């Protein structure tokens, strides 16, 4: 039984299109550029903005990872500032003034004894007069001395800081950036695989539409012959007019199906031309194909799961989560930095500013307003979640590989089994045509035989398309999409060759 995927592609040919311009495009298909599948494959990368965007994303992540390589280097910065300042100094002189007065008094009182006896009276009189003047002299000295200055300073400076130990924060950041590159590359590879599947869908979808157009045209031509035979039989009195009308109705239905097939073929050609960015149109040359030989065992495709984009992306996401654990642990550890500063205008510096300064700073957070334990526990949970997601991704990919492998095998067997059905349908139509012409079979039998042949041909087209599309899906899921051209080259059944 044909899968819904292929039947959907085939039944699109039976949809009624409202645009009359499509008929003109179908008529002008000869002007479209003939293109083999290999040539279309060579163009899909340049024609896909999505792939170009993935390339830019990979390049951006690589640049960011490269930027983290210099985190251990010193940060040197230059700054310049113009400062206008005012400074007021206030000095209390009360204590020093009292001490000076007491010391002077003691000195004067001892001074006469240091002279001869004849001079002591004279010196005593002098010291008495000086002592009497001391309160006046020291009273002139204020109790508080104030000094105020105002100036404008231009201060250029060069500063440097270099991390010596960050508790593992820098290695964690670098590991996270590297893992982000792996994520971007996995997305790029996945996008490339999807683009190949889209090309197979669009390219061979046009071939499906062309095959349906060919099949419906043959059916219409057959009914034209049946109608001509029926009219001759009616003229000879062999069959009544009612049988001619039955053939006429069937013939008109075949014409409508042919018109719809033409419209759908034009739509498929336009879709392929837009996919490949070919405004002039594209005419697919490579026919639908089937390999009569079975595929390699499904285990061959499952063995390469680790190389698939989904598994690689999941592993990279786990590495990012692991780097988050390292970053959370670094919050528990000390940090050490070397620093230095040089004043490039020492002649115009503030009095308290050094000419240069250099040293090492060690910092350890004793108490943080951010709960570091819960942060570390959350990072570990995220790592476990990422590890589980990576394991689940592998299981999902394995399931998809098995499902796709079965679809390919089902389509292959269905296509081969339809060979005998097609031969029987053609022989039945031949017998019914002869019987009808001899007046031995009703027109309904002839119409049914023609419909059976058309249905069998449609199922065969659907089986071939299902095989090609399922094969592309299998190879994309197992990240072997480049092998599609190998299967195409060794195909021994090509449906388009039967036109």
UniProtKB/TrEMBL annotation:
What name has this protein been given in UniProt? Outer membrane protein TolC
Q: Which PANTHER family match?
A: ABC-TYPE EFFLUX SYSTEM SECRETIN COMPONENT, OUTER MEMBRANE PROTEIN TOLC
Q: Identify the species of origin.
A: Sphingomonas abaci
Query: Which molecular-function annotation in GO is an example for this chain?
Result: efflux transmembrane transporter activity
**Where is it mostly found?**
membrane
Compartment(s): Cell outer membrane
InterPro entries in alphabetical order? OMP_efflux (IPR003423), TolC-like (IPR051906)
Q: Which GO terms describe its cellular component?
A: cell outer membrane; efflux pump complex
Give the signal peptide, or none. Answer: 1-21
């Amino acid at each position: 039984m044909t899968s819904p995927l292929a039947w959907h592609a085939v039944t699109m040919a039976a949809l009624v299109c409202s645009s009359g311009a499509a008929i003109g495009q179908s008529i002008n298909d000869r002007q479209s550029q003939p293109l083999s599948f290999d040539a279309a494959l060579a163009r899909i990368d340049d024609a896909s903005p999505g792939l170009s965007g993935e390339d830019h994303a990979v390049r951006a992540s690589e640049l960011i990872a490269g930027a983290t390589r210099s985190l251990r280097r010193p940060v040197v910065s230059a700054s310049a500032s113009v400062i206008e300042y005012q400074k007021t100094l206030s000095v209390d002189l009360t204590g020093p003034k009292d001490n000076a007065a007491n010391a002077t008094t003691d000195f004067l009182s001892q001074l006469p004894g240091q002279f001869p006896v004849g001079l002591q009276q004279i010196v005593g009189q002098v010291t008495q007069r000086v002592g009497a003047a001391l309160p006046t002299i020291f009273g002139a000295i204020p109790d508080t001395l104030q000094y105020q200055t105002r100036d404008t300073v231009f201060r250029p400076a060069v500063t440097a800081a270099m991390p010596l130990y960050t508790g593992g924060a820098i290695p964690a950041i670098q590991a996270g950036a590297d893992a982000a590159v792996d994520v971007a590359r996995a997305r790029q590879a996945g996008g490339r695989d999807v683009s190949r599947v889209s090309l197979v869908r669009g390219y061979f979808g046009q071939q499906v539409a062309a095959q349906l157009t060919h099949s419906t045209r043959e059916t219409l031509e057959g009914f034209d012959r049946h109608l001509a035979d029926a009219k001759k039989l009616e003229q000879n009195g062999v069959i009544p007019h009612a049988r001619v009308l039955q053939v006429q109705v069937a013939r008109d239905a075949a014409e409508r199906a042919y018109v719809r097939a033409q419209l759908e073929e034009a739509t498929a050609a336009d879709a392929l031309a837009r996919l490949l960015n070919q405004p002039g149109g594209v005419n697919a040359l490579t026919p639908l194909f089937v390999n009569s030989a079975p595929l390699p065992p499904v285990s061959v495709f499952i063995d390469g799961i680790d190389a698939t984009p989904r598994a690689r992306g999941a592993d990279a996401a786990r590495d990012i989560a692991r780097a988050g654990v390292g970053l959370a642990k670094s919050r528990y550890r000390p940090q050490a930095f070397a620093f230095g500063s040089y004043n490039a205008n020492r002649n115009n510096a503030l009095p308290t500013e050094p000419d240069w300064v250099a040293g090492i700073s060690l910092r350890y957070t004793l108490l943080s307003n951010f709960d570091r334990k819960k942060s570390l526990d959350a990072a570990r949970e995220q790592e476990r979640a990422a590890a589980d997601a990576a394991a689940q991704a592998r299981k999902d990919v394995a399931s998809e590989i098995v499902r796709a492998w079965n679809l390919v095998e089902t389509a292959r067997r269905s296509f081969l089994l339809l060979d005998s059905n097609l031969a029987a349908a053609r022989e039945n139509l031949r017998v019914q045509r002869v019987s009808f012409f001899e007046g031995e079979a009703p027109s309904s039998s002839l119409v049914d035989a023609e419909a059976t042949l058309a249905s069998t041909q449609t199922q065969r087209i659907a089986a071939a398309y299902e095989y090609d599309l399922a094969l592309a899906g299998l190879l994309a899921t197992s990240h072997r999409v480049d092998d599609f051209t190998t299967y195409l080259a060794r195909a021994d059944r090509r449906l388009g060759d039967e036109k």
